[in-house]
Specification:
It contains 11 helices and 7 strands. It is an alpha/beta fold and about 260 residues long. It has a single domain, classed as Rossmann fold (3-Layer(aba) Sandwich), CATH 3.40.50. It has a 7-stranded mixed beta sheet, with helices on both faces. Helix 1 packs across helix 11 (about 235-250). The mean pLDDT is about 95. Bound molecules: adenosine-5'-triphosphate (ATP) and magnesium ion (MG). The site of adenosine-5'-triphosphate (ATP) has 20 residues, from helix 1 and helix 9.
């Protein structure tokens, strides 16, 4: 059965898509099979896999009950993905009256659960239907944050949404960790936030990944050419950091590398 992970934070631009892609690439580099499900109507992850999304099956067709999730998987050199869809919000009003509106992704995934080691969900920068579907279908979340002064305020709202999901739709949901991203140790504010994060984690009851992801220009270069960072810059800061995050994650979920 796949370990399912939602990469979630309702704040924009914190590194959800980057973490989805780089963690998936680290997993594949270690020999794990990975499926990404793009739950973000911005479709940034999808654009890394497919340049022309006209007439392809997407997550829209899954939520619209038109197709099985298996039929929507696209596999390329980059890996396997259920493509996102900019029209996904159209379905919101259609599923809004359903009692199981937050359980749809979880139910649909049962068809592919045994086909992968990991399933990663990239989520949009909102606390709405698509993020709740992802955290309801997930075993756990990874929450990227930036070292800015509003990061902790934003985390409060995110943790409340996670607590609500635990109460209502997914009692076993875990927070694997808050992941500080785009960290630059030459900046005083970054250093201060990094040093106080574990204490705030204890107060608010969330774990923090032991290493931050450092600022790394190689990330946007890899994204610009739609390639894995582990292919284009395997010894870059971020590749090293994501490999360490994977290591820590594997220990948390008690899974051995391949
Ligand atoms: N560690 C890093 N070093 C340098 N650049 C980074 C790093 N992490 C992310 N970026 C860059 O920051 C930008 C925002 O990252 P990303 O798109 O992953 O955020 P996001 O949370 O998915 O955004 P959104 O909320 O819009 O979906 C991207 O241009 C990405 O290349
Ligand atoms: Mg994104």
């Amino acid at each position: 059965m796949a370990v399912k992970i939602a990469i979630a934070n309702q704040k924009g631009g914190v590194g959800k898509t980057t973490t989805t892609l780089c963690l998936a690439d680290a997993m594949k580099y270690c020999g794990f099979s990975v499926l990404i499900v793009d739950m973000d109507p911005q479709c940034n992850t999808t654009s890394e896999f497919i340049s022309d999304t006209t007439d392809i099956p997407t997550i829209y067709d899954v939520f619209n009950d038109k197709m099985d999730i298996k039929e929507c998987i696209i596999t390329s050199e980059r890996g396997s993905i259920v493509p996102g869809d900019k029209d996904l919000p159209e379905i919101d009003s259609k599923i809004n009256s359903r009692m199981d509106r937050y359980m749809i992704l979880k139910k649909k995934l049962s068809g592919v659960d045994d086909d992968y080691d990991f399933i990663l969900f990239d989520t949009p920068p909102t606390l709405g239907t698509w993020m709740i579907n992802a955290i309801t279908a997930a075993d756990g979340c990874i929450c990227p944050i930036l070292a800015d002064k509003y990061a902790i305020d934003g985390l409060g709202a995110l943790l409340k949404t996670i607590r609500d999901a635990k109460e209502n739709t997914n009692p076993d949901l875990k927070v694997y960790g808050v992941l500080l991203n785009n960290y630059n140790q030459t900046k005083a504010l970054h250093k201060e936030i990094w040093s106080t994060l574990p204490k705030i984690g204890k107060q608010l009851d969330f774990p923090v990944f032991k290493k931050p992801i450092r600022t790394c220009q190689e990330i946007s270069k890899a994204q610009a050419v739609g390639k894995s960072l582990f292919e284009t810059a395997p010894s870059s800061n971020a590749a090293v950091d994501y490999a360490e995050v994977l290591d820590e994650l594997l220990k948390k979920i008690k899974r051995k590398g391949r």
